Structures are given as structure tokens and as C-alpha cells.
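Let's practice the habit of predicting before peeking. Look at the sequence and jot down your guess about where helices and strands might fall. Then scroll down.
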Amino acid sequence: MIDDGLRRTFVPKSEIAEVPQEQPQLAGEHFRISQPRNNSPTRINSVGTVEKVEPFDEFGRRIVRLNMPHGPQDLVQAITDITPQWTKLQALDYDWEASIATSSIPRETLHAILTRAIDNNSVEDRLRLVRLYLDSERYNDAVVELEEIRSDFPTVAGDRFERQADAIRQLAARNILA
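Done guessing? Here is the structure:
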């Protein structure tokens, strides 16, 4: 099985030439989001149909209504990890994990969640956001963040950030053309 955090791909043993001994490291920026989780979550034995999914709030939490064997049940699902490709979700009171594509989270929501997870007064932490957006191919988001950094830290930014923003705009244009 190949697990990239978002998908699991199963390969027959006869098609495997060699299994690496080391686990690959996560590519790109990785943000852990602290969530108040129940120490002994209830196990979910079966998940029925999803009746309703609310949008994430600025803390990275949302309500999911599942049709369970004993009737509809609302669960609080929270973001616990964000990478350029996938975002890990965990139910706070239940033993239930899932992943979604980071690209499926709107910029405003993702930005609100990430700015709670970093030191907004640190240029390096803010540049980590830019790198996450770049690795996610969210070029416009990266440019917006660079411009905000330049505005918030005018003595540090200088012309370097303007040149980087121009280079990112060029990446975005090439991506559209491709």
C-alpha cells in the first residue's frame, strides 16, 4: 500500500521490485494545528451517509452530521495537520480520521487557520506560509501573503520581496498557459 496522506494505492506484491526501509519525509511545509481532543474518544464502528457538512471556522473546526445506526449524529471534525497536498481531519470526541485536499479549503479559511498556528510577528513563520502556498500551487495566495509581509515588515522586505512576487506571478501565468 502506498499512502500519500490523501490517497491509498494498493499494489499487488508481484508488481513490487523493492520496498524501501525508510519512510519518506513529508515534502514541503507542514503545519500542526493544536486541537482540544477528548483523551478517550468513542470508537465509531460504522459510518453512514453524510447528511450535512458545515464550513470550517477560523479554528479549523466544523460540524459534520452523519446518519448513524442510532440516528443522526453531529460530530466536531477538526484540522490537525496541513501540508501542501493534504489536510488531516480528526473528530474531537470520536476515533475517526479523514483527509481532504488542501486545495479544497478556501484561501480565507486556510489563512485564518494558519495565522493562528504561527507567530505573525515572525518573518520566517510568515515566509513558511508563502512556501506552503507555492508548494500547493496557490500562486495568488503566495503573492497576497508576500505583499502582506512587505506591508507588515517594510524594513526587512525591501526589493527582494517585490522580485519574488513578480517571479510568483510569472509562475502563475505559466501555470495558466500550461
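How did you do? Strands lie at 2-3, 8-9, 31-32, 42-43, 50-53, 61-68, 71-82, 86-91, 94-95, 97-101.
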